[in-house]
Amino acid sequence: QMLKQVITRPNRIIRLSHGDEHFEFYILYLTIILNQKPVLISNLFVMHRPMHSHEPFLCWSAVSGVETFRSAAALRGRLDRRLFLAASRERWLALISEPERDRVRRHLVQPDLAPLGLQFNRIDDDFIEAQLQIDLRLQRNNVEQALQRALVRDGVVDRVLEPVGAQAGDEQEVGDAGLGGLLVGRAIGGV
Length: 191
What we know:
Layout lengths: L1 H7 L3 H4 L8 E8 L7 E10 L8 E5 L3 E5 L2 H13 L1 H8 L6 H9 L8 E6 L4 H27 L3 H12 L2 H19 L2
Antiparallel strand pairs: 1-2, 1-5, 2-3, 3-4
Helix pairs in contact: 6-8, 7-8
């Protein structure tokens, strides 16, 4: 029934026609320190029927597939353990884009470690489209960060940025593509 709702009724407003039987879908954010921007976890979502609080939370991730949890607290506890254990940490950090991944990693190695919080954000729009956009954002951020690290490491930042800045002229081009997108486009296409 859950999969049928996802495929045939990806928008929440349409799923509400199922009354008490409708599922809610959530994306998750890690909260590290209060008043700091939470960190989106991609390729992970939670399903739950809010009118059936006794039923488990279903969680799907690219790392572990579908799992069930008795409560949101049990889910948070399991995710905390996976991030704190060195053996599983990197697999789970791969679901977080750069540079947020480094921020979480730095937090996890602190001796006076505060527990991570978990924020559930309900998806009201098209669930499938939301997942695609999250994945695209993760990939784009990772490519931009890798490109920036490579440019800095190889000492070519000044040589690359000077011609790009001179050629761009139109700030809209940089604004729409982002610096990493503009640099990747120029490096690949020679534009």
